[in-house]
């Protein structure tokens, strides 16, 4: 096995433990910061930008003013609402270190592979007893390819099962470099229609679809479809995605992921507007009808991850 470069650095915004839905067994999920897509329904907007960034929890703020006095960039202003000038803010984190209630917090931390592995090893017994392992998520792990590759190599050196949640948006060379270290790929397909895809994610899907075919010949794949109101929540688009999945090697399972608004408040914390507005979740009947479309194409289908 190639030697692991344990000093390789990347940026994570969370390490989630005891996950049961992102691969077999009990899993730990390092969330990578940075994503080349800008999906309107993204439930982790703090994952989109590659650098650490400041969030503000209004409900925890006591208006003490310590952060304002500390900020050398004059990016913070008192009042109700408290104001962050995000053009001035350089994400230094000085304000978070003096905030007594943690109303200000930096999302994103630079870590080495060695540091991440120290965290992951805390769950090693659970991995072995449950047949679990580590799932890279984000953001888009492939946006930090060297960090992802070295972390995966370190996991395989321990004998752990490895998985990745990915959009598939990356250079061909990245796919060929990273995926030999992955046991399972959970690949999102948002839309087949290129215009629909670009309008709702900001990028064309031609490279994504080429890569998903490529990935399916390297490792095991489960296709996941986030079912989004007004984007792909119709039988025609779901059928077209299933038809594409037929072209992939060995894919027999498709997961339909219902739209939800769990991440809406995160946009407020980041000072952004939620792009989906008041879009509502689908009924069980609607999801069941789309499930039948997938099953009619010969796939096993599950609603949820």
Automatic annotation (TrEMBL):
<keyword id="KW-0004">4Fe-4S</keyword>
<dbReference type="GO" id="GO:0051539">
    <property type="term" value="F:4 iron, 4 sulfur cluster binding"/>
</dbReference>
<dbReference type="InterPro" id="IPR013785">
    <property type="entry name" value="Aldolase_TIM"/>
</dbReference>
<protein>
    <submittedName>
        <fullName>Glycyl-radical enzyme activating protein</fullName>
    </submittedName>
</protein>
<keyword id="KW-0408">Iron</keyword>
<feature type="domain" description="4Fe-4S ferredoxin-type">
    <location>
        <begin position="80"/>
        <end position="109"/>
    </location>
</feature>
<dbReference type="InterPro" id="IPR017900">
    <property type="entry name" value="4Fe4S_Fe_S_CS"/>
</dbReference>
<dbReference type="GO" id="GO:0046872">
    <property type="term" value="F:metal ion binding"/>
</dbReference>
<dbReference type="Pfam" id="PF04055">
    <property type="entry name" value="Radical_SAM"/>
</dbReference>
<comment type="similarity">
    <text>Belongs to the organic radical-activating enzymes family.</text>
</comment>
<keyword id="KW-0411">Iron-sulfur</keyword>
<feature type="domain" description="Radical SAM core">
    <location>
        <begin position="21"/>
        <end position="300"/>
    </location>
</feature>
<keyword id="KW-0560">Oxidoreductase</keyword>
<feature type="domain" description="4Fe-4S ferredoxin-type">
    <location>
        <begin position="52"/>
        <end position="78"/>
    </location>
</feature>
<dbReference type="InterPro" id="IPR012839">
    <property type="entry name" value="Organic_radical_activase"/>
</dbReference>
<dbReference type="Pfam" id="PF00037">
    <property type="entry name" value="Fer4"/>
</dbReference>
<keyword id="KW-0949">S-adenosyl-L-methionine</keyword>
<dbReference type="InterPro" id="IPR058240">
    <property type="entry name" value="rSAM_sf"/>
</dbReference>
<dbReference type="InterPro" id="IPR001989">
    <property type="entry name" value="Radical_activat_CS"/>
</dbReference>
<dbReference type="InterPro" id="IPR007197">
    <property type="entry name" value="rSAM"/>
</dbReference>
<dbReference type="GO" id="GO:0016491">
    <property type="term" value="F:oxidoreductase activity"/>
</dbReference>
<dbReference type="InterPro" id="IPR040074">
    <property type="entry name" value="BssD/PflA/YjjW"/>
</dbReference>
<dbReference type="InterPro" id="IPR017896">
    <property type="entry name" value="4Fe4S_Fe-S-bd"/>
</dbReference>
<keyword id="KW-0479">Metal-binding</keyword>
<dbReference type="InterPro" id="IPR034457">
    <property type="entry name" value="Organic_radical-activating"/>
</dbReference>
